[in-house]
Amino acid sequence: MSLRHALLAMLTAEPMTGYELVKYFDGSVAYVWSAPHSQIYPELRRMERDGLVDVEIVPRGEHAKKRIYSINEAGLEEFQRWIRELTPYQPERDVYRLKAAHFEQSTYEAARRQMQEHLNHYTRALQIWKQVLDDVDNRRVSLLRERLAQRPQEEHEAIVAFRKLTFRGQIAKARMEIQWAKEGLALLDELESKGVPLRGEP
Q1: Boundaries of each Transcription regulator PadR N-terminal domain copy (predicted)?
Q2: Residue 136 — very low, low, confident or very high, per pLDDT cuts 50/70/90?
Q3: What share of the chain is helix, strand, coil (3-state, %, to 5)?
């Protein structure tokens, strides 16, 4: 997935300014696709250049102006092309497993610190994703409400169901990572209690 497709996905709900796209990006898409704000505005300009969005320039206050982006037919075709095509799976690049596989080169303190941070990170993520799932289920996500308002009633069930599927997957992932971190911490405790040396220890 590219930032371009993430932005097109949001514009299928309604036209938005760059500021609104950044705001909604942080509140929805960023949970599954992270991108810094500094990349969003240049990508919008490229999308405009490539004919995927239409832009309306309107006044903002007395002297300023703002650009409102809306997906056009070419942009919708590009998004639908991307959503239909099979996305190949990328080779794994998991720095956390790579480090864990070589903890014997570390110290118990450093290894335990890494596993504890993994546990903390996914514990926080689990709470966030559970809250997002609840917000989707109860229609508290503003962009979702806008999308539902723009689409026929008969499409609403699928729109909500696919978003719930996404966040249930994130919840399952977080729970698996939490369990893995707990197993790692328990293993470190066991090895250390047996006096098993690590090469990185003084």
Answers
A1: 7-80
A2: very high
A3: 65, 10, 25
- Whether the pLDDT of residue 88 is over 80: the answer is yes
Number of H helices, E strands in the chain: 8, 3
pLDDT of residue 30: 63
> Which has the closest alpha carbon to 134: 85, 81, 173, 171?
171
Beta strands 16-17 and 64-71 are antiparallel
Q: What pTM does this model have?
A: 0.87
Could you tell me the two tokens for 111?
């290894």
- CATH topology for 3-84 is Arc Repressor Mutant, subunit A (1.10.10)
Exposure string (b/e) for 57-87, b if CB count within 10 Å is 16 or more?
A: eeeeeeeeeebbbebbeebeebbeeeeeeee
